[in-house]
Amino acid sequence: MSAAKAGWGTRMLTGLAAGAAAGLSATAVLLLAVEPRIDAAIAIEKGTSGGHAHEATAGAHDHGELVTRLQQQIGGAVTVIIVAALLGLAFAVVYTRVRHRLPGSTEVGRSVALGVLGFTAFALAPALILPANPPAVGDPDTVNQRTAGYLLVILLTILLTIAVFALTRSLAERGVSPEARWVVGCLLGVAGAVALLTLFPRVDSAIPHEVPAALIWEFRLTSLGQLAAMWGVLGLAHGVLTTRLLTAQSRRRDANPSPVAV
């Protein structure tokens, strides 16, 4: 029984559960690895603030902060879980539509492959072209420009992925061997990635000299690790849950075979 024959409601529940598991794993990385780097950047930013800025905000601190750092961390963790759960729903829909085109011979393999593609398009490519900075670091005037660039990188990466799959499918229809299709697809993907890395316009975001370069790179690597954990667990959990779902449905079908007309 294929995944396409499972009901939409069941598919959505599978995606939701996989997304929740991915959100929990991403939250763990966020709290254990990313947040300490953010705290360090905030401490440096506060330590280098001018005396006038301190005097201007002293009255506000006397009345208490509107949102504490702990509240920000809790809100961020809850947001990650919710976003990952919603992502799981979208993942289940996309998987059902493109399952037959994904590499792999099992549901787990195909699901993990889709997770790798998602991580590449939505996390790795933007991180290589427009690396992130901690919230307290960087020029706030470039936020809109960086956001637009981030979305454009994702769009171009998705289009490149579609082009690679379309090319390999066209070669398959012409009888080209799987090995040759794999080589051609890799060459197109690498060529597109190199072009994207070299030709995409960079966004200048000055980093204060007070902020150590090691802290910036630690934040970027841990942030990328958080996204890798989310996409990896999403693909793996979705594949495992889909396999269990199809196995259970197959057993029920075998236990209650349809009556054969005489």
Quick structural gist:
77% of the residues lie in helices and 0% in strands.
Can you walk me through this structure?
The chain is 77% helix and 0% strand. Helix 4 crosses helix 5 (143-173) and helix 4 packs antiparallel against helix 7. With 262 residues, the protein is mostly helical. The chain has helices spanning 8-47, 51-62, 69-98, 107-129, 143-173, 178-199, 213-255.
Q: What is the percentage of strand-forming residues?
A: under 5%
Structural class category: mainly alpha
What's the β-strand tally? Answer: 0
Principal-axes geometry comes out as: flat
Biggest sheet descriptor: none
**Averaged pLDDT, please?**
83
Keyphrases for this structure?
262 residues, mainly alpha, 7 helices, flat
Helix-strand blueprint:
Elements: H1 8-47, H2 51-62, H3 69-98, H4 107-129, H5 143-173, H6 178-199, H7 213-255
Helix pairs in contact: 1-3, 1-7, 4-5, 4-7, 5-6
